[in-house]
Specification:
single chain, 457 residues, alpha+beta, 10 helices, disordered N terminus
């Protein structure tokens, strides 16, 4: 370990040893710690680290860079606006030509929002929609990536690609349970013309025997194939379905019909024509600070990737990754922060290319504490033992409710960064990266480290 500060830390003697004892080599680990003085004391800051200047894959902790930039560049009360257009005239309650949705970069426009928009549309006298159903995501000019490209799992919600008109994360909750020997299913929210076909066999045992996968054999049918333990009452999964236009149409069509309307339209991704007439504008009821909190607490990848592109789109930069990277680096420079080793890809951590040094991320987190009111920022992180990805971690009396963390996890990567309020009233700011095929071995060591920071300072 190398000491970077004014005083030797007792943690230096045993922190790296804990990794080694867990079976991880020293060169798989990087950490950087700054313990700030307590208020109204003459104490000096303590800084220490190990390989803290080496760029490593941060996994989802890179979301801290994206969300910090968004908090400043977009503003905590920034609210995206989604617009709904008539693509033709309304004649005797029939919207001829169809409906267009112009995406405004709202990363969380969910079914409950859409249902309220439908009330507005029906108030215009529309009862039936005929023609086209256009989903316009042109606010983001970044080409849509293949959702299977990262790990070959296109149905996983974390792989949903960003889209300026994304509805309900392009995902549904699928629940299956057995009732009187027959499988029952629920899909929330429901999608028009879509059904689930369970093809599951029962085997001895409980839910630990469950082995199944999902196959979308046709546009209208999702098959669930595999085995389920006899003692397992059922299960639920979140599934990403269709492309953005197909999903949006099926989501809208079901909600529209449930509200008493009818629709016969062809979904497509296209630009809304200039001749279209504005029917309704939906301003997000969630300010940016609330969205950033969900990104950090729950590690929501589609939201993070959308906000990353919004950093570009909101500044008329075209909504591209390259422009977003440039703007984030400019913002860092404005904060007197320079991370020359940093490599940003999509801003979410769902990447094998993103890199940053643990010392750089810790410096950013220390700088955020220097804001006039840092607490809204701190509160975007998951509270240990209570919230989000930290709900089941750090539940001991020493740390529960006293650490605010952002976790990261990929195959071969584990990471954590955040703040801990120590027993002596100090802020401990920390970042730890583990890059190794056996990185999963580090989880208890990471939690132990935060516990030590709380108790020793």
């Amino acid at each position: 370990c190398t000491s970077l500060g004014h005083a030797k830390s007792p943690v230096q003697d045993d922190w790296l040893a804990a990794f080694l004892q867990a079976g991880l080599p020293a060169d798989a680990v990087s950490y950087s710690v700054t313990v700030l003085p307590a208020e109204q004391t003459t104490d000096r800051a303590i800084r220490f680290g190990h390989r803290e200047t080496v760029p490593m894959n941060p996994a989802s902790t890179i979301k801290l860079v994206t969300t910090a930039a968004a908090m400043d560049l977009l503003g905590p009360d920034y609210r995206p606006v989604t617009r709904f257009y008539a693509l033709g005239p309304i004649q005797k309650g029939v919207l001829k030509g169809g409906l267009g949705i112009l995406g405004g970069g709202d990363p969380k426009l969910v079914i409950e929002d859409l249902q309220q928009v439908i009330v507005e549309l029906k108030a215009k006298g529309i009862r039936r929609i005929e023609g086209r159903f256009v989903l316009d995501g042109s606010r983001y000019q970044e080409p849509l990536p293949d959702p299977s490209a990262f790990d070959g799992q296109p149905l996983k919600p974390y792989n949903v690609p960003p889209h300026a008109a994304m509805l309900n994360f392009k995902s549904v909750r699928l629940g299956l349970w057995s009732e009187k020997g027959k499988w029952q299913t629920v899909v929330e929210p429901e999608l028009a013309g879509f059904r689930v076909e369970p093809q599951l066999r029962r085997v001895k045992g409980g839910c630990e025997k469950n082995q199944f996968d999902f196959q979308q054999q046709s546009p209208d049918v999702l098959q669930v194939r595999g085995q389920v333990g006899l003692k397992c009452p059922g299960f639920e999964r979140y599934i990403a379905l269709f492309d953005h236009a197909q999903f949006a149409y099926r989501l809208f069509a079901k909600a529209w019909r449930d509200a008493g309307g009818s629709i016969s339209a062809k979904p497509e991704k296209a630009k809304i024509p200039d001749s279209a007439k504005l029917l309704a504008s939906w301003t997000s009821p969630r300010p940016m600070i609330e969205l950033l909190s969900e990104i950090n607490k729950r590690s929501n990848n589609p939201m993070a990737r959308s906000v990353f592109l919004e950093l570009s789109a909101a500044a008329n930069g075209g909504g591209t990754r390259a422009d977003a990277v440039r703007r984030v680096k400019q913002w860092l420079t404005s904060q007197n922060l320079s991370f020359p080793e940093m490599v940003l890809d999509n801003g979410s951590g769902l990447s094998r290319h993103e890199r940053i040094a643990s010392a750089s991320l810790t410096r950013l987190m220390v700088a955020r504490l220097g804001m006039p009111d840092p607490y809204p920022w701190i509160d975007t992180l998951a509270l240990a033992g209570l919230e989000g990805t930290a709900k089941k971690r750090l539940k001991g009396q020493q740390t529960v409710g006293r650490a605010w963390i952002k976790t990261g996890s990929l195959d071969d990567v584990r990471s954590v960064s955040g703040y801990a309020l120590t027993d002596q009233g100090r802020w401990a700011v920390f970042t730890v990266f583990v890059n190794h095929p056996q990185a999963g071995l580090s989880k208890p060591v990471l939690d132990e480290f935060i516990q030590k920071l709380v108790s020793r300072y």
